[in-house]
Every structure is written in C-alpha cells, then in structure tokens.
Design goal:
The protein has about 425 residues and is an alpha/beta fold. About 40% of the residues lie in helices and about 25% in strands. It is built from 15 helices and 17 strands. Strands 1, 2, 3, 4, 5, 14, 15, 16 and 17 form a nine-stranded mixed β-sheet that branches. The longest helix is centred in the N-terminal third of the chain and has 17 residues. The radius of gyration is 21 Å and the shape is globular. About 50% of the residues are buried. The model has no long low-confidence stretch (mean pLDDT about 95). The structure holds zinc ion. The site of zinc ion has 5 residues, from loops.
Length: about 425
C-alpha cells in the first residue's frame, strides 16, 4: 500500500508532501515523488505532525471520568477510586480501554503507556484498534517476607510479556510496573527489576507524585522514592517515571545517569493539587521528559495537545520567565521523546525510514488563522479538535470524524451499557 500525503505543511520543510509505503515513511520533501500511489490525500490547509505519545495513563479509567471531583487527594483515592476499582471486570476494562483508544486516536495520539489491572483486556483493545501501546500490569506488594516468585500479579506480568510482547508487528510492548514506593516493599522491587532485566522488559513507576509520598519515603527509608528504587533494583532497565513533582537535585542527576525517562502530567498534577514539576531544570539537565495525561479520573481528558500547551505556559508563569519551556521542546516531548521512552526506534519523527505514525492538523480552523510559524501554531494555537487524520504504521485509523479500524457506534453502545450497569452490582 502506497499513500501520498500531498500539498501539506511540514515543520522544517514548509509546503511539501510525505509518502508512505506499507508501515514506513519513504519520502518527506518539497517535490512530488514518483507514483503510482494507491491513494493520494490532498492535505491543503493542513499541517502534518508526527503522531503524539501519551506516556502515562490508565486507559480503563475512562470509566471513572468525572467520578469524584474537587475532593482531597486521600478521600478521592480511598472513598471513590479504590472502591470503584474493586468492581472492575474483564468486560469493563476491555470496553473502557477501547473507549480511551477512541478518544486518543481522535486527539492525534498514536501510542500510549499504560499501567493498570486486567491488562490483557487493554492489550486486546490496542491490538484490535491498531494503536501502539506499552502496557503493564501494575504490581503492589505489602509483605516483606513473601516469596515474590509466587506472587500472582508478577506471574500475570510475566505471562502477559510472554504472550504479547512484540505483538501486532511490534505495536504492542509489554512493560513491567511497580505502582509506587509507598505501595511496594524493597524485596518485591528488587525481584521485579531482576525479572525485567532478565526478560528485556522496561519498567513503569509512579515517582514522587505528592509531597506526602516523597516525605514519608524519606522518613521510612531515609532516601527519596527514586533512590529507593535505585537501591532496590538498580534502575537497571529503561524506566518511565510518572509525575516526579517532588524530586530533588540528586534525583535529577540520578535520572540523567540511569537514563530514566520522566512522564510529565501537568493537568493531573494541578487537578489533584500535587504541585508543579521542575520541568525547566530537567530539560537543562538533558533528562528525557515526555508528556502524559494520567487516567481520565484525574484529568478528565486524554489529550496531549492540552498537556503540551499547559506545559509550555505553566512553567513560564511559575518561573516568571517566558524563555522557559519553548514550543519546539514541548513538541519534541510529545513526539520524539515519547518514542524514546517507549523504546521505539525509528518512531516519533517525520523522516524517511521512520514508521508512518502521522497526524494531519487543520490549519484553516478558526483558532489557527493566521499563523506565522508552524511549531508555534501547533503548540499555542492548535487543539485536539483540529485533528483530521491519525495514521499508525501507515494505516489510517481515524479520518474526518470516522474510525476506520472498528465499529464506533457499537462501541458507543457498549460503553453506555457498561457505565449504566457498573455501580449496580
Ligand atoms: Zn498514574
């Protein structure tokens, strides 16, 4: 299958076109490459961008969008989210994961990093819809004496890896995950890092999301959450650390040294009153920072345009310095850095030989006219409702309001049905 995306605007190229053969980009430039093509799409008035990466989410939490608002964090978790999660079923996670994927594709997201439960259902949803994903089964552990080789959650993580890592032509990757320091004992952390290293898996962890978490770890172990994992497992495999709001200078140096990627979730951190991550310092240190939405319960949308915009303006305001967090860096965080964090070579850029993960953004939309610079337009003017097309591995999954890889009307029906029955058990 050969597709030509013709008459587009492309950052670094200007007016040009992009050609795709099967799953790869074979041309980006100003002239029109030789055909024939199976399909030519006239992108006039549109901007082609690399597809966006959502590097921290809990996809099935679309079930809990709007469920428990404006509550203190502990009460939000203990009185609303944890009891609601006790009611999860395979069916609910499958449908809610599909729903999350529908939202992400519509918002120009081509890949997501997921930490949750019933993860085989999220894998199934990702395989069927055609999106990319790094999916992990979240591990918590509270018994310092247990034999973690016998732990059912860890066994589930391994089984998931053995069955699905590399599935869908490499679209699906299975990571390991430790929920956080305050939900894990040192022994389980060390064991899971050993497993991940032996298997060649990556790791996802919540790190220093709240001041309380960070301080209590210092009281309990005498070290920060990041250093806790360094001492119990060695950060020996590629780690995506979500939040990192309260990390200190030594943590940042350790992240750089160990190649830890950070998932910055500005909307969730503000909505849950967690604070503001030190993004400008992290960028200065050369840490690989990406963007995430977190779950829909704490956001409420899965929208990386929104995170990118907020990241760009938030730190300017907090630091009272407009030269902070420039637009080009924000776009790189949302694309190339995300691909790097997920361990995906040849992804996250529009270049010959890269995977064809491409989105088309409407520059004629009322909020984008006029524009003087494509990067500034993408970060400061555009929003997710301007996405006209989302392509993953050369396959168009969403175009002009239509989903091409699954039956959205059926999914709407299923999601309504699951939500209506959810709390009635
Ligand atoms: Zn999270």
């Amino acid at each position: 299958m050969k597709i030509l995306l013709d008459n587009a605007q492309i950052i670094g190229v200007g007016a040009g076109c992009l050609a795709v053969e099967n799953e790869s980009i074979i041309y980006v430039g100003n002239s029109r490459p030789e055909g024939p093509f199976d399909r030519v799409i006239d992108c006039r008035g549109g901007l082609l961008l690399p597809g966006l990466y959502n590097c921290h989410t809990h996809a099935a939490m679309t079930l809990f969008r709007g469920y428990g608002e404006d509550l203190p964090l502990q009460s939000w978790l203990n009185d609303r989210i944890f009891p609601a999660e006790d009611l999860l079923t395979d069916e609910a996670v499958y449908v809610a994961s599909q729903w999350a994927i529908a939202e992400m594709l519509r918002n120009g997201i081509v890949s997501f990093t997921d930490m949750y439960m019933f993860s085989h259902q999220t894998v199934k949803a990702a395989l069927e819809t055609g999106i990319k994903a790094n999916i992990s089964r979240c591990v918590v552990s509270f018994d310092p004496d247990a034999d973690y080789a016998l732990d059912s959650r860890i066994a589930e993580s391994k089984a998931l890896f053995n069955e699905f890592h590399g599935a869908g032509g490499g679209r699906i990757k299975i990571d390991m995950s430790l929920h956080a320091e305050y939900t894990n004992v040192p022994k389980a952390s060390a064991y899971l890092f050993d497993c991940a290293a032996a298997m060649g898996a990556q790791m996802q962890i919540h790190i220093s999301e709240t001041e309380r978490e960070h301080k209590e770890c210092l009281e309990r172990h005498g070290v920060t959450p990041l250093r806790f994992f360094y001492e119990n497992g060695g950060l020996s495999v590629p780690v995506t650390a979500a939040h990192c709001v309260w990390v200190d200078d030594a943590d940042m140096a350790l992240m750089k040294e160990c190649g830890v990627s950070v998932a910055h979730n500005p909307v969730s951190n503000l909505k849950l009153g967690s604070g503001v991550m030190r993004l400008p310092e992290m960028l200065k240190q050369g840490i690989n920072v990406t963007l995430g939405s977190d779950g829909a319960a704490s956001n409420n949308t899965l929208d990386i345009f929104k995170e990118m915009y907020l990241a760009a303006i938030l730190h300017k305001g907090v630091c009272r310095d407009t030269t902070n967090t420039p637009a080009g860096d924000m776009l790189k965080m949302a694309t190339e850095n995300g691909a790097m964090a997920q361990g995906r070579a040849h992804c996250g850029r529009l270049a010959e030989g890269c995977r064809a993960d491409v989105i088309l953004v409407d520059l004629n939309a009322v909020n984008n006219v006029p524009y003087y610079d494509l990067t500034y337009a993408a970060v400061y003017s555009a929003n997710s409702s301007n996405v006209r097309m989302t392509m993953v591995d050369g396959r168009i999954l969403y175009e002009n309001g239509e989903y091409l890889s699954f039956d959205f009307e059926q999914l709407q029906h299923d999601m309504r049905d699951v939500c209506a029955r959810y709390f009635q058990k």
